[in-house]
Amino acid sequence: MTPENRDILLQLLDRHRALGISEQIDYDKFYLYSIIVHSTAIEGSTVTEVEAQLLFDEGITSSKRTMAEQQMNLDLKAAYEYGREWIKRHEPITVDWLITLASKVMARTGSEYSAIGGNFSAAKGELRKLNVSAGIGGKSYMSYLKVPERLAAFCEELDRRRKTVDPTDICAVYNLSFWAHYELVTIHPWADGNGRTSRLLMNLLQMEFGVLPTKVLIEDKATYIQALIDTREAEDITIFQNCMTRLHIQHLKSDIDQYLNTASEKMVDKQALRQKLVDKWSIKPTLAEKLVDILVFVADTEEFTTETIVRQFGFTATTAKRYLRQLTEYGYLESHGGNRNRTYRLKKTISE
After folding, report:
1. Does 3-255 carry CATH code 1.10.3290.10?
2. Which helix (H) or strand (E) holds 162?
3. Which of 78, 259, 300, 327 has the highest local Cβ count within 10 Å?
4. What's the CATH class of domain 283-346?
5. Which of 75, 1, 19 is nearest to 45 (CA)?
6. 3-state DSSP assignment of residue 181
7. Which pLDDT does position 139 carry in this prediction?
8. E strand or H helix that includes residue 18
9. CA-to-CA distance for 335 and 305, rounded, in angstroms?
């Protein structure tokens, strides 16, 4: 990446951390859901982030989307979950492991193929035994006969780079992940699922070294694909690395702006709500302040527990339970379950 983009990226990542954006409740979960939805959207899925959340968390399917689209998202979610657990162990990346990873991506939607080179199953992640091209009239990928050897060489080089990269050099980690994405999608080992699996590998490498994973949004599709084409034609990996860096910068800026706008709106809510609690329930302003802080904290949360509040605010469990009981009595929260497994949900918006 260029020195200018490097500086901007590092500044934005520092800003992102300083604001505590990734410390919001369920941030990692919803960030991952967004990655999954947009990765499948690039391949033709029309499932929205809200629909995916219902599908992943509640098992609720959408009548507006085909079953194949929804299965595509379920498969990719399972692949990310498998990959995240595996990458924590820092084991070697092998051809067999990539085949397993691809089988997770294509488990429900992969087809069976009968080709000159033999039969193979995309659902099992098996390497292609036929030649493919990038769309009608597009450039042909390497012969399927060369794929096994090239893929083995890629795994060997990737592991060498994983061992030698400086984990404290954030930009080097991103460049490694972008390189791996480009190399894998260029080899094109499978008949289907190459894009999803390559973006998945990119994200897993970023997770391995503890940097914020890169999203490729559906809105980025044209820019992203053109960067792949330009990189291939020029044989210059920096083209793709610079493009991915610019997209990551763009998304970081958007996330930070959205967070700051939301925080600003919540500050206005806090002032009005604090006074409302004091006037209506005749409680001390200091208590109202604590109750409002809790409401603002959980404003974007589906469900939370007493332990969530204890961890965030440092209250004792007894104090946290008392505050949550008061907010329930005042009509701001509703509780579910018994004492041991009680959860809470926001009953009304914090401005009410």
Report:
1. yes
2. helix 147-164
3. 327
4. mainly alpha
5. 75
6. helix
7. 73
8. helix 3-19
9. 9
If pLDDT is split at 50, 70 and 90, which confidence band does 132 have?
Answer: confident
* 182 to 9, 32, 51, 201, 244: CA distances (angstroms): 20, 21, 30, 10, 11
For residues 349 and 211, what is the distance between their CA atoms, to the nearest angstrom?
34
Q: Give me the residue spans of the domains in the chain.
A: 3-255, 283-346
Q: What is the pTM of this model?
A: 0.76
* 314: nearest Cα among 349, 342, 290, 334: 290
With a pLDDT cut of 90, the percent of the chain lying above it is 68
Quickly count: other Cβ atoms within 10 Å of residue 90's Cβ: 11
pLDDT-derived band at 165 (thresholds 50, 70, 90) equals very high
Q: How far is CA 112 from the centre of its chain?
A: 29
Q: Is residue 293 exposed (0-12), middle (13-18) or buried (19+ Cβ within 10 Å)?
A: middle
Cα distance between residue 34 and residue 28, in whole Å: 10
The alpha carbon torsion through 327, 20, 266, 30 (nearest 10 deg) reads: -80
* pLDDT for 133 beyond 90: no
Could you tell me which residues come within 8 angstroms of residue 87 by beta carbon, excluding any fewer than 6 positions away? 204, 205, 207, 208
Q: Which has the closest alpha carbon to 291: 339, 349, 352, 350?
A: 350
- Report the amino acid identity of residue 343: T
Q: What is the pLDDT of residue 235?
A: 94
C-alpha closest to that of 134 among 244, 229, 238, 38:
229
- By mean pLDDT, which of 168-177, 180-189, 337-346 is the weakest? 337-346
Q: What is the dihedral of CA 199, 50, 223, 150, to 10 degrees?
A: 20
Q: Which two tokens stand for residue 143?
A: 């012969």
Q: What is the DSSP letter of 289?
A: H
Tokens coding 84? 């995240």
